[in-house]
Amino acid sequence: MKGEKIVKRWKFSSKVIWLVFYILLFIFVLLHFILSLFGLAFTPLLWNKWLFLLATLIFCNLWFNFLKNREFRWFHLVWAILSVFPSLFAGFFVFFHFSIIGSENSVPINMDYVTNDSEVILRKGFLLGEYDEHHDLVNPYIMKTKVNRVRYID
């Protein structure tokens, strides 16, 4: 009787924990779109961490749900370890895609960025079409979306 209550409480609390994490990530996106109404955006420092947390959260949530509904066997652990590589590849592909597309994108996920005193420099493009976008910093975590200048790299 007591064990059943603990299991029910754990199932409820684990669902609430996952829901809270997803809601926090969604609130971050909503704040970004509210900031974009004023011509501002979060810096790549925050967006890169957001993307990593989202990918990790989805990966862990799927595996916890899978293992919760089945009895544990050793090959489940092997498949969990082997599934890390395709998920890392998919995450890197998304990260790389955001890094090379043009500035029409309002989400500044970027692999190659530099924060100077008063500006953020985002390197966009790929191979022959590389260029730098210079954005003003409002504070260390928020930048202006308007591109000050673009410097093409030959």
From TrEMBL:
<feature type="transmembrane region" description="Helical">
    <location>
        <begin position="74"/>
        <end position="98"/>
    </location>
</feature>
<feature type="transmembrane region" description="Helical">
    <location>
        <begin position="16"/>
        <end position="38"/>
    </location>
</feature>
<keyword id="KW-0812">Transmembrane</keyword>
<keyword id="KW-0472">Membrane</keyword>
<protein>
    <submittedName>
        <fullName>Uncharacterized protein</fullName>
    </submittedName>
</protein>
<keyword id="KW-1133">Transmembrane helix</keyword>
<feature type="transmembrane region" description="Helical">
    <location>
        <begin position="50"/>
        <end position="67"/>
    </location>
</feature>
